[in-house]
Amino acid sequence: MSALRLKNVCTGYGPIDVVRGIDLDIAPGQRVALVGSNGAGKSTLVRAINGLLPLREGRLEWGGESISSSSAPQRTRAGIATVPEGRLLFPECTVLENLIAAATYGEPKAHRTQSLETVFELFPRLHERSKQTVGTLSGGEQQMVAIGRALMTRPRLLILDEPSIGLAPKVVAEIFDVLGRLAKSGFSLLLVEQNVQLSLRSTDFAYVLRQGQIVFSGESSALLDHPEVRRAYLGD
Ligand code: ATP
């Protein structure tokens, strides 16, 4: 069964429909890429999934239940976490404060401790720097905090919006290694990346979005060899 299922999802801003008729599935433990050029509607679709933007049409299911009208906090509590584009951390606060701030309100303290241990195990560098203010960290370390913060909500689906942007290749490799490990341990991933090569190499299945609609979908390895995908997104 799918973890997340989108059926005919439409949403937008004001009078404009930005994404139209999206069908998309993510299985438990599956790594899914959402690919498309600037303005294709990727971030808009992410907002429709995490509840920041209401659906205009269609249906969202999570574990077989409709979450179409659930609020963003309800979706977070249900296990959907987003690492937003630009990270949106608290730069004046420490690494630890940023992580703790995201632990779900009302959760037993033991859960919080366990989540912190998981984050520090995945990113030992954050453990070393737990008392450092986030604004003084490198871009890569900040991205690790953003991923760690999402993990503090104990999600089953992690949505990452442009996690590699502006980062050095070595740091990107480090972060993507952690993402691979998370998927192996059962997390579903939805990866939104402008770096199509990286995106298709790091996922199992991909959807290509153009002007708000899915124009191709398939195994990521197959899309990597698809002539039209190569021409449009890989500079062939
Ligand atoms: P990018 O990679 O550049 O972020 P994207 O594929 O994520 O692109 P979106 O950010 O979803 O694309 O934008 C899709 C369209 O929706 C664009 O035409 C954009 O101008 C428009 N749009 C995005 N956010 C808003 C908003 N808050 N109000 C009105 N229009 C918006």
From TrEMBL:
Keywords: Amino-acid transport, ATP-binding, Nucleotide-binding, Transport. It holds the Pfam family ABC_tran. Residues 4-236 form the ABC transporter domain. SMART domains: AAA (SM00382). CDD domains: ABC_TM1139_LivF_branched. Gene3D superfamilies: P-loop containing nucleotide triphosphate hydrolases (3.40.50.300). GO terms for biological process: L-amino acid transport. This is ABC transporter ATP-binding protein.
